[in-house]
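Lab notebook, bench 4. The sequencing result for the construct came back, and we need a structural model before the next group meeting so we can plan mutations. Quick request posted to the team channel:

Model the 3D structure of this chain.
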Amino acid sequence: MILKRLITFFVYYILLISGVAAQTEIESKGIAQIFNGEIEESINTFRASLKENPNSTLSQFALANQLFEKVVDKKAKEMHIIRFKNMDEYFADLREAYKWSVLASESYVDLDESDKLMIRQSLSVAGDEVTGYLSSRIQQEAYAYLQQAPYRRPTYQLYRTEVYNRIMEGDTLIALREILIRQCGDYISDYPDSKYIPKVNEIRKGVLKEYLDNTSLRQYGNRSGHMYERYCKDIIELYSKDELKKIVPLFYGKEYGFSPSNMYKSDGYKKLKAFADAEGTSIIEILCQLNIHDRGCDTANTELYDRFVKQMAPMDIALIAVKKMTEDAFRKGDYEYVKNIYATYKSYFPDQENYFDRIITTLGDTSNPRELKNIGNKINTVAREYQPVITLDEEYLFFARKTAKSGEDVYVSKKDFYGNWSLAQEIVEVNTESHEVPMGISGDGQTLLLYGNYSKLRKFSYVRGTESRLGKGDFYYSKKQRDGTWSAVNVFQYPINTPYYESGLSLSLDGDVAFFTSDRPGAVGEYNPNYPEDGLYFHGAGEFNTDIYVSVKNDDGSWGEPVNLGEVINTPFAEKNPYLHPDKETLYFCSDGHPGFGGYDIFMSKRLNPNSWTEWSEPVNMGIAVNGVDDDAFYLTSAGNKALVVSSKGDVNYGRDDIYELEIPEHLRPLPMLFAHGKVVDKNGEGISKVKIKINTADGVEVHEKYTGDNGEFQLALPPDTDYVVYVDDDDLIGSSIEIKEDSDPDKNFSLSAMETVNLTDEEDATFVMNSLNFDTNSFNIRKESFFDLDRLVAMMNRNELWILIIEGHTDNVDSKEYNIELSKNRANAVKEYLISKGVHPTRIDAYGYGEERPVGSNATSSGRQENRRVVFTILK
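Done. Here's the predicted structure in token form:
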């Protein structure tokens, strides 16, 4: 490099003293930068020169040469990262270099000999380098980059030889191969006369080969199979008819109603063949032109779609084509035009007129347009965020993020004091180098439901010891521990997980009912499992017949035999992502079988019989307030007034897919509910698991009972418009009940104080404070809300006739000591008299008043004074 610079500097010096200096001032500056090795600076200088004089042959060639040198230099420095390098920037520079080299070559031949000499001497190049050699080198270098790309080799070889790690680098490899296909096409466009074009086509053909087989297409592309249609034009151009003969029966057979064995005899094939003949082309080419599974309908092929629908109706694929024809107008909000399309083609589907009418009716309600509000950059990033799951108290949000270090990871965010989401954190305990997605969260927020590939990873091989009957998609869970971390992942057992495909798991509020999707036998319609070997497309998508099932937990903790929700909910197509609201009546789910706008729409149905899982109201499409023409899915908040959705088309977007919030129209919300979140603890503040609690209305009617979770927590969903009392119903535990005042929280989402209890089976005496015991201000009159717990204490005393009860009254330091002593004695005696009036013998009760003498908190604060105003009970056993 030093020698080169010395030589070029010497040449430049000779040129100056010899008087050959016909360059402009700016060109002279650029030449000096070349001799100094300032590649980037010289490029900028010659670009500026060409702005002043676009026809300068010297600047044209100098810019071309420097761009070429820049690419060669940069590639040499970046060879160590070539496995992960998107070479678009190389090709962009080479493309520009080639443009200027061709212009320089063309203009050079028209120059007189003195100008040619000046260029050769100024840049120290030979004439043939200007007239074509550089252009050839650029073409060769661009081809070399394509040929040397390590990711052009077959994917299975790259995994087998460990050039790429399938789990950690699979997504990156897929993306680079797609980019390489485009770059090969760009090469052919950029260098139409290149002698390397046949070899470039071989590279392109080799990469595209994986899109000729549905197994490799799903494995190394996208499960929907849309990547074939994205590149079908290239594939048809590069491959022979014989090489493509399996595409139509293998990829499209199930969608058009034929198999390889009966293809030529089937009505679907005959109709498709007649349509292709009428269009003057082959079946494979007409399917590529329609491009139903990738590009869809646009202005260029609208008339083709019109002819297709009229020819193929009333087949299901013709209905899918009608939906594709509406997508552009729907996205623009032109719902009248969309309605007109459905009205136009309705008569071609005589058995589905009701289907069309329901869509048209739903489109008629435009009173609640879809408005997506981004939930912020503490959650959303330049990466993809999706699959949001929110806890019942709406304090924690779980979601999946597509990351560079692995496939998909689970993250969590917590609301701060002001109700804003905090910066999301990775849940390292459940994440691996593979793919993990949150499916749901239990009502108590303590069990995270997961979908992942754990059983295929050595570290998690233990899950197969729990359940070996796993399949194409499986459910797992992790439990929140006392320190806030998450436990080791475990697997749901059969019959929820099976060797078939399962997805979309959610649990009821109490965790005793599981809803999920499966392609197992017994579905509505024919058994048509997901991702079959003999089919790729079905009903316009890559998913086949999946139904929603429900399983109820048995008394021993195992899961009961799943029940198909029946024909009202399930169709012969795909239903998924079921969610039963805590009202135990309102079901939300996704479907591409019910009357919808396109892809998956979200539907709502009501459970008609509390004793049946197969009796449901007709599902209602949630309309344009929620649904679009793409695949829709959402996660409902507990109140049911808002939902979290995933989109790239909201008010603000930070990257690709972001998580948004949208408003649910009132008529589509679940029943209003009152939610409460509480915890039963011992005297040390530790949660007590599996304790029965009961809930009564304020007038004493029992409405519900349940047991606390592993950490003592419980969640309640109750009808609003009344007050409630929550208490521990256990003969061995005593403590205060808690009142829920319905009008004290406008959001109807209560966080209850911990219910401290004392275990009466311990050998030592039991001391506790009855927090529910209240008196009128400056009085010893017991308020009526206190009677409930006092009556429960009476019942315990009467069941244990040897117990002695000590009652101690205490106050804060407001007022005089004498006054406080008297008040505390009177209050303790008032409690004693009440218990005696209810049947406890007076000899079993002693009452004392200590006033402000024994504080447990600081009397300098209001909270401390409140702690000091108490009545303490001690049971002597």
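The chain has 24 helices and 33 strands.
Will bring this to the meeting.
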